[in-house]
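agent> Task received from the user: take the single chain below, predict its 3D structure, and emit structure tokens. No templates, no multimer pairing.
agent> Plan: (1) validate residues, (2) run structure prediction, (3) serialize to tokens, (4) report one or two observations.
agent> Step 1 OK, no nonstandard residues flagged.
tool_call: predict_structure(input=
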Amino acid sequence: MMGVIQAVRDSLAVVLDIEATSLYADYGHILCAVVKPIDGDAIVLRLDDYHDRPTFDDSPLLADLIKILAHAPMIVGWNIDRYDLPYIRTRKMIWRAMGVELPGATTKSYDMLRLRRKYRLHNNR
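)
tool_result: status=success, residues=125
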């Protein structure tokens, strides 16, 4: 994990994407998260790589993801301000309520969807 954190810390920014079982974090679970330092290799966290846990316990994946993101100078992604980061925050809140303490992360984010909407394109949804 230290090598991963060092690669994230040395990067200018990381690209983040999560895949989940639902659009709603209080109902769904994180299945997979990918953190890609701009100048490094992708870090893939998959729920099925975490053994010795109940089927839908995504707290170990979430803890590792938050540890990694806490060291990122900036997080870049598509719709991360309205989906990925709120989903991660909500899952963190749910697991804290269930007695699992997770590390905090305060990092700047840059949402590419918001950037795209500033331009006059044929389909600006």
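agent> Step 4: summary for the user.
The first strand starts at residue 14 and ends at 20.
agent> Done.
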